[in-house]
Amino acid sequence: MVKITIQNVSFSYGSNLILNDLNLVVGDSEILGLVGPNGSGKTTLIKCIDRILKPRGSILLDGRDLSSMEGSEIAREIGYVPQSGSSAMGTTVFETILMGRRPHISWRVSDRDLEIVTEVIELLHLEDLAMRDFGQLSGGQKQKVLIARALAQEPSVLLLDEPTSNLDMKHQLEVMEIIREMVQRKSISAVMAVHDLNLAARFVDKLAVLKNGRIWAAGDASSLLTPDIIREVYSVEAVVMQLERPFVIPIRSLNGGMACE
């Protein structure tokens, strides 16, 4: 069953066209990974889905056009996790996660709100950090808290903008494992901008490859992560090993320099 339908979506900053006639679908309990070089439109698309930006075309949630929905209703349905370190708050971890309940709170915080926050803290094993100042956490810890805040909204869709950026290997795997587990446990859908192709191949259900604001290709990782597509999209020569999932080894950029992450 389709959860999100993106139809003929375009977006411009002034005369600068960022997204050009995008069409995609995201299924129930599915993770769609957005990959592509810097400036390809991944973050802009996520912000359009969250209605932070208002594109041309239509984005439907369970068949309803998001442009016809109130902001409070969208906030109850869609949880947004920004890039690591992009939110500095003078609050404790518990208070930060409680902010995710804001779309549901009328006059005061209810016992149910506190129960949900406590449950999310336990699910993500954040008990030891609950009374810590958010601003004093490491990058990996902050990212887990921001995911917890989004989950506290009880959304049907989770949007994540490069959730593993600036994290070490351990925290990259931990964050991606949490996202995968929460999608399965909570039966939600996710759209995730991913920088690392190997993490994308391992954890997402479907890929959309963006270049210059267009969908270059969409499908499963095994069919899309090929040396030819990586060369065309990233201008990088790579070897792709077919293990359980594709594993990309960058060799060199097409300008002759060694490729790096």
UniProtKB/TrEMBL annotation:
Principal EC category: translocase
Tree of life domain: Archaea
Keywords: ATP-binding, Nucleotide-binding, Transport
EC number: 7.6.2.8
Catalytic reactions on record: an R-cob(III)alamin(out) + ATP + H2O = an R-cob(III)alamin(in) + ADP + phosphate + H(+)
GO MF, one annotated term: ATP hydrolysis activity
Domain ABC transporter: residue ranges: 4-237
InterPro entries cross-referenced by the UniProt entry: AAA+_ATPase, ABC_transporter-like_ATP-bd, ABC_transporter-like_CS, Metal_Ion_Import_ABC, P-loop_NTPase
Record's function text: Required for corrinoid utilization. Probably part of the ABC transporter complex BtuCDF involved in cobalamin (vitamin B12) import. Probably responsible for energy coupling to the transport system.
Family of the protein in this entry: Belongs to the ABC transporter superfamily.
PANTHER family attached to this UniProt entry: METAL TRANSPORT SYSTEM ATP-BINDING PROTEIN TM_0124-RELATED, MOLYBDATE IMPORT ATP-BINDING PROTEIN MOLC
Listed name of the protein: Cobalamin import ATP-binding protein BtuD
Organism: Methanothrix thermoacetophila (strain DSM 6194 / JCM 14653 / NBRC 101360 / PT)
